[in-house]
Amino acid sequence: MSLNRSPQTHQSLIERIPKATGHGVNHWLSRLDDGPGLLRFTERVNWLRAEHDLPHSFAAALVHEADLRRRASRA
């Protein structure tokens, strides 16, 4: 599943995460890395929501950011 958000909307969500959650983006990306190793986008979003009580929009933005960074590191 891919996001249907503009890059600007995604960036806005990423920038708001520290204030909204009390933790920076790198903290959340580490949680994803240390999590149960789910592969599907929706599974990882739902895990963040259930395990860490994150709103759907922030969880989806974090999973998308993790995927973007992973792709960038491979290039």
Name the descriptors.
DUF4287; mainly alpha; 75 residues; 4 helices; 75% helix; single chain
Describe this structure in words.
The chain is mainly α. The protein has one domain. The protein has four helices and no strands. It has helices at residues 7-21, 25-34, 41-52, 56-74. The longest helix is centred in the C-terminal third of the chain and has 19 residues, at 56-74. It holds the Pfam family DUF4287. It comes from Frankia alni (strain DSM 45986 / CECT 9034 / ACN14a). InterPro entries: DUF4287.
Short description:
The chain is mainly α.
Give the structural class: mainly alpha
| Broad shape | globular
**Count of the separate structural domains:** 1
Mean pLDDT: 93
Rg from Cα: 11 Å
Percent helix: over 70%
SSE string, helices as H and strands as E: HHHH
Total of DSSP H or I helical runs spanning 4+ residues: 4
Mind describing the biggest β-sheet? none
Number of strands: 0
How many angstroms does the end-to-end distance come to?
22 Å
Low-confidence stretches: none
Pfam families: DUF4287
Protein name: DUF4287 domain-containing protein
InterPro entries: DUF4287 (IPR025629)
Give the SSE layout.
Elements (H helix, E strand, L loop, with lengths): L6 H15 L3 H10 L6 H12 L3 H19 L1
Helix pairs in contact: 1-4, 2-4, 3-4
Protein name: DUF4287 domain-containing protein
Organism: Frankia alni (strain DSM 45986 / CECT 9034 / ACN14a)
